[in-house]
Amino acid sequence: MPPPPPPPHLRGVAPAPVAAAPSFLRLPVHTRLRVPAPRAAAASPVPASHSPHEHDADLLSRAADVADRSAGLTSPHPNFGCVIARPQRENDSAESFVVGEGFLYAQGTPCAELLAAQEAGEHARGATAYLNLEPGDCYGDSTAIGSLVQAGIARVVVGLRHPLKHLRGKAIQALRSEGIQVDVVGEDLQTKPFEGALKSCLTVNAPLLYRAAFNVPFSVLKYAMTADGKIAASSGHASWVSGKASRGRVFELRGRSDAVIVGGNTVRFDDPRLTARHVKGHVPVRIVMSQSLNLPEEANLWNVNEAYTIVATQRGARRDFQKKLAMKGVEVVEFDMLNPRDVMSYCYDRGYLSVLWECGGTLAASAISASVIHKVCAFVAPKIVGGVNAPTPVGELGMSQMTQAISFIDVTYEQIDRDMLISGFIQPIPDLSPVIPSVDKIPSIDPEVSPYETDIISFYKTWDTFGAFSNFSSHPIHMPDDNGDYFTWPTVEHYYQAHKFVGVDNPQARTIIQEIKLAKSPEEAARIGRTRQKEFPELVRTDWETKKIDVMYRAIKCKFATYPSLTNMLLSTAGSVLVEASPHDLFWGGGREGEGLNYLGRLLMQLRSEILGTFPASVKAEDAA
Predict the structure, then answer these.
(1) For position 587, which CATH number holds?
(2) If you placed Cys at 329, which of 304, 534, 567, 608 could pair as Cys (CB 3.0 to 4.6 Å)?
(3) Catalytic residue chosen out of the listed positions 101, 113, 119, 134
């Protein structure tokens, strides 16, 4: 069959290239910050990829690029983009036509999914929608979901689940309940073919991800310096270090920020305006940090007709001057101890997503030391100013060796007229997808748990909140010994370690069992069992590797049956993934980064399901695990 024709208003339009991973700094200003309008190239063909997965990855990257068009136009909101594509021919996934695109301009405006569906029209029926981020409007407003359903979308590819817990998974569940196939990168789609697309999705919503992960706004430190590392001359004069084109890029950075922060010296020496002039974007709040409040009576920042200004200061500083600022409409906020961390917490409480730091070296060093700076944008001008006392962009960090230097991540280099822009992250963009050991096994253990839509409960040490789940917890169990006689084992760990040697017809094996029985602590029992297993492998029962899960499960069932309080604690975790957070035991534990098999967590979830009646007790533990 011939490919479906594009919508009439798009026929004859030249193809639009698939965009590379979006960056805060890489694309031209007019590309990123223009006022939204119908995209004329929506019906452009996407070049054929080597595989269907690469094809999906290209379109997902394009969705991230579309989402990036809203950055800086309004604040604060996440960046949502939707691309709708359909194959040129039936049963052909090698090449597709993009028939609709849309992005969320601002909260309260039509959502990306609705705009893309409207542009696609009838061509959306049976097509695939690509979303850089799971829709986040499932509470009250279901327009995003309804738009895709009513348009007849057959499949949705999602780059990232929503990072906020109260929204995570809600839209995905709603789409699936409508019979739409939903594929999430890293879950239903292997991550490797989508690495570039996933990075695009992370980058375009970095502010939201940092805020969700660290409870502070995403912070970018910007400065312009000479080739010899000076941000001003020895006199303090700094106009202008960089060229006009670089300053235009700074206006754009401000337009993408909710607030711009400077210190008192910047106000005294430079008298900045800190507006996003010459760029069609919102105007950020201007924040001045000054402990002493030794600031000039008149300054551009005190003119709040251009933009709102906040002065953050130490409690009790120059109350008379505070009143003068208030008379001008400047808000003064007092802190018990003025520091970057508390100011960022304050900005977080005000709902800011992104903050741009345009401060001097002393405040920059303090912010970096407080771990509130996530990215650096350094404009380097091809000039030398010299001066032993000329200020540098970052003050004292207490580093005495070059090996202590902070290295940038994902570094980019861009020439802007005669200047060079070097940018990079100093804290990686947080991927809030849960790290769950052996995630492929979890649905078979607890069918009520979706590992990507739930909380993770970790336990390890007995003093943890859920430390009673540990095999080392002080809960004796009454179970058979090597002779079949019932014996009260001090802990599950005692029972488990001894049963490595049960049934072996050797006096030395029985001696080891007795030694473990008498161990004064579970740690001692574990040490004896593990050491003897290495020293005398011939004394370990031959079926141990196939039976050890059964042995552990019997002990766990006895433990929880003996102590009703433990059963109640286990049932209180319903709907959560349980992870034994041992960084060393990669069989029973989850490992440092989810590389472990987490069999103990699995068995506890299996027991929880049996108690709740959602898992048949007749299924063997090793089959479930």
Answers:
(1) 1.10.357.40
(2) 304
(3) 113
